[in-house]
Amino acid sequence: MLQRVCAHGGRKTTGAGRKFAVQESRTDADIIGLRLYWVDAKKKNIASCDIDGGDITVERDLSSTTTAFGLVVIGNKAIISTWFTAKILSAYVATRNALWTEELSLPGSSELFSLVATAPSMQPPSFHPCGQEDKGGCSHLCLPTRGTSYRCACPSYGGHTLSFSAKSCEAPSELLFFTLKESGEVGFISLTGAQSHDLTLAGRSKHPSAVTYDPIEQVVYWSDVKEYVIYRASLAGGEREMFLNSSHGIGIVDGKFAFDWHLTGLLVDFTSLTWGTQSQVWMEPCTHGTE
């Protein structure tokens, strides 16, 4: 299946509702001709379609060529990389009987995969506010939407959300944390800033469930009900670290889970692997006990 999504992350669609019975290796777009090209590793060909997913055309037969992987289309020229033989070959797309010309060979290597190329002909000159020095007035990310329209956004990690002006990113003073169990994401939104479709993340794990926050140290704690672990991570970004696991008596933490900043400790209500109990976990000093 070939899908497309806008540069700003919205409107994910499948071309004209079509499902392609192919094993795609690499795709490339012809900006001028408004066509999408791909290598079909299963049917051994180069195919293309229009931007709406219609007019599917087999451009070149690759059955006599070592399995192709990478693909770049510049004008009427297709450039492919091959598995196992580690070569870069080129040929004219529209001339189906044109011979492949070897552009590069890497003897002794079998790890030549994707290709990407830049050329003026591949991207016509255009004006867009996101391409200007001030990024359309956005403090961090400027995401094109349609035409010359755009919207500002903040990085997924780093503890910043979009301010009320919808132009700049700020560290919010009021936050609402949540967990998305199926996608494994731990995120938050600002209760005072602008509405945004983007998720601001604090961390990830297999099946996050309960979540709480230390506002003094700006550290997020969350439980994972599949790994029997409590993780923590700085709101400002950085790697997560395991705080407690089953060896500390932690079981399935999916209920009460709160941070007591007066006692500097976690209040955890969990189902142990062998019994149910309520536990108070202290951070200073790093010990824990049950109640």
UniProtKB/TrEMBL annotation:
Q: Which domain of life is it from?
A: Eukaryota
InterPro entries (UniProt xref) = 6-blade_b-propeller_TolB-like, Cueball_EGF_LRP_Nidogen, LDLR_classB_rpt
The identity of this protein, by name, is EGF-like domain-containing protein
List the source organism.
Answer: Pomacea canaliculata
